[in-house]
Structures are given as structure tokens and as C-alpha cells.
Amino acid sequence: MLVGDSLSSLDEFALIQSLNYKKQSNNFHNKLGVIKGIGDDAAVVQTRSGSQLVMTCDTMVETIHFNPYTMLDEDVGYKAMASNLSDIAAMGAIPKYALISLSIPKHYSTFRLKKIYKGLYECANYFEIAVIGGDTTKSPKHLNISITLVGEVESNQALFRSNAKVNDLVFTTGYLGCSAAGLDYLLKVKQKQLMLGQIPMNFLPLVKQHRRPTPQIKAGRILLQSRRCHALNDVSDGLSSEASEICEASNVGFLFDEVKLPIHPQLREYGQLIGKSPLDWIMYGGEDYQLLGTVSKADVVHIQNRFQQEGIPFFIVGEVVAQKGVQMKDAYGNIKKIHKKGYNHFN
Ligand SMILES: Nc1ncnc2c1ncn2[C@@H]1O[C@H](COP(=O)(O)OP(=O)(O)O)[C@@H](O)[C@H]1O
Ligand SMILES: Cc1ncc(C[n+]2csc(CCOP(=O)(O)OP(=O)(O)O)c2C)c(N)n1
Ligand SMILES: [Mg+2]
Ligand SMILES: [Mg+2]
Ligand SMILES: [Mg+2]
């Protein structure tokens, strides 16, 4: 990076890399028991007990992650917690403790902040997370909420992005694209603090997926306990981006099968209504917080059965191939390259 480079010329992931690359030695990290550092959904470190700690943080910034047209105050707190939980789920770990950092602009009332915290605790209590601290400051203009989550995982069992193997099957734990379509709807309606009761029934699943995504903690645990999942990631930036991350970390490629990608009926209907392909939202939308992973063909039936027993969806959507990058096979068998495009903070 050159002095004076503007942020808009940089990719978010290249920026993280350039700020941190070669700043600390491997020996130093090894001494401190770092099992996984920068580059996965969460970091994993060794403790003296038999288990390992898993740590992650994610931030929500007003205007970037939410605004008065897209979210109710309660939803902001809920989603801040849920999006962090999702990164713990993507490691197959058990979330435990949370620290909340809040930066508040002058115009926010305590009434609104209490609503944000109501949603936050709703999510924390459901998933049995202890809120144990945080930090509070004022902010010049917009609300900023950042959560650090700490969890626990059985030693050396955490699921990384880096272990996908050629010939594995690629799966997701639910529908994708709904959150982005819900966001599109809310931004078009453009009504401040729109209540669920004011939203037509057929758009409700899309809006709910945007405002209150369910972190896939249970799915992550099933996958870890099966000991048969090779690679795992959560879908915050869109399927294309998250698939590329697994491919890059594992040095493999993905071949998605378009006819196998599940399309939520309401996503299809909304796409038809506004003349947009559901595939765009699925590949490039983001914020679905489903899990995307790989498992060997021999083990897939076992895992499918476990998901069925727990009533959690499990969709096989493609396979891992030797050719690098992400590709899509359409209904006619034509294969095209999918570019790593999705939500990126700086371009
Ligand atoms: N400012 C930063 N300094 C150091 N590491 C960072 C920074 N921002 C992100 N990371 C790390 O980079 C990796 C990718 O981050 P991110 O894309 O936000 O992951 P995710 O989409 O799973 O939340 C993670 O391992 C994260 O901990
Ligand atoms: C008002 C508004 N505009 C756009 C978006 C879309 N959006 C914002 S951030 C984001 C990606 C996920 O957030 P990020 O901070 O990248 O989380 P991470 O990948 O670190 O989990 C998306 C799709 C939104 N949620 N709200
Ligand atoms: Mg993630
Ligand atoms: Mg993140
Ligand atoms: Mg992101």
C-alpha cells in the first residue's frame, strides 16, 4: 500500500492482509498457543485445560449495516449478537461469553438504546451467552456496535476453511439470498421503522431473514461431532465470496450445480416481481448466516441423517474439484466461472 492510497482503491481482504502481514513471528504465536490466527471465521487458541478457546468480533455500523428504513432498534441488537454467533458456529464451537462495545451519537435516546439491548439479550439468552463486559463511548454521527464473542471447542476439532478436499460434496444449511432480497424490499418501501405487521405476508420471510437471521450453532455442532466435515464457513458476504474463501484456503475449486441451489419460494416470487434473478441474491447478496461446507461423499448420508433428526435443512449444492476457483454448472450442463464478488467494504 502506498502512503496516501485511498481506501476505495483497496479490497477489504487485501487491506487486512497488508496491515497484518509478517508483523509477528510464527514462533511467537506458537509460544502463545495460537492454533488458528487471522484468516478464518474465528481464532482458536490453546488453554491449559483439554479444550481450546475460540474468539471472534464483528461490528455493525449505522448506514453500512442498518438504517431506520431497514431495521427496528431491537433487531440491531439481535443481529449484532447473531452475526457474531454465526462465526462461532462456522468453527463448530460452543459460544459462551460476550463483550459489547457501543459508540453512541448524541441524538440516540436511552429509550432506543434499551430497545437495542432488549434484542441483544433476547439473542444472548436464547443461545445461553453470558454478557460479561464491554465499552461505551460517544460517536460523532452514527451508532456503532461491536461484539467480541468467546467460545470453546474440543481440542484440535475446530472446523477451518482450509481442509476441503477434491471430490468432497459442497453443502449449505439453509436457503440463501433471502436476507439480501428482504433488504432490497425494505430499501424500496423506504418507510422508517416499518413493523412486521405492516409488511405483506409474502415478503415477511425475506424481511425476517434480513432482520433476525438464525445463527447455525446447532448445525455447526452436528458437523463437528460427526468428525466428518472437512471445511466450514458462514455466509456473511454472499455464496460466491464465501466459496472463494474456502477454495483459496484449501487450494481447491468449487463446482456449483445451479439446479441444486435451493430457492425459497418467496425469493423466487419477489425476483419475478421486480425482474431480478434469485441467483444474483444467492451468489452476491450476503447476510444469510447459513453455513457453507464440504464433506466426503462416503460420509454424506450419515450427516444428512443427523440433520434430518434435528429438523435442520441440509442441501447438497455442488462438489469440490481440482480446478481452482468457483464455477457454476447450469441446467444444460454448461459451466461458467463465478467471480469473487460479494459484499466488500471498500469496493
Ligand atoms: N482489522 C483487523 N486486524 C486483524 N485481523 C482482522 C481485522 N479485520 C478482520 N480480521 C481477520 O480477518 C479474517 C477475515 O475477517 P472477516 O472477513 O470479517 O471474517 P468473517 O466474514 O468471517 O467475519 C478474520 O480471521 C478476522 O479475524
Ligand atoms: C443499509 C444497509 N445497506 C447495505 C447492507 C448490506 N450489507 C452491509 S454489510 C454486509 C456484509 C456483512 O457484513 P460484514 O461487516 O462484512 O460482516 P462479516 O463478513 O465480517 O461477518 C452486507 C451484505 C445492509 N445490511 N444495510
Ligand atoms: Mg464468517
Ligand atoms: Mg468479520
Ligand atoms: Mg464481510
From TrEMBL:
UniProt similarity note: Belongs to the thiamine-monophosphate kinase family.
EC class (word): transferase
Positions of Mg(2+) 5 binding: 237
Known function: Catalyzes the ATP-dependent phosphorylation of thiamine-monophosphate (TMP) to form thiamine-pyrophosphate (TPP), the active form of vitamin B1.
Other remarks on this protein: Reaction mechanism of ThiL seems to utilize a direct, inline transfer of the gamma-phosphate of ATP to TMP rather than a phosphorylated enzyme intermediate.
Gene3D superfamilies: PurM-like C-terminal domain, PurM-like, N-terminal domain
Binding site for Mg(2+) 3: 41, 87, 234
Listed name of the protein: Thiamine-monophosphate kinase
Binding site for Mg(2+) 4: 41, 56, 87
Example GO BP: thiamine diphosphate biosynthetic process
NCBIfam families documented for this protein: thiL
Pfam families for this protein: AIRS, AIRS_C
Annotated EC: 2.7.4.16
Chain residues that bind substrate: 65, 287, 343
Keyword annotations of the record: ATP-binding, Kinase, Magnesium, Metal-binding, Nucleotide-binding, Thiamine biosynthesis, Transferase
Binding site for Mg(2+) 1: 58, 135
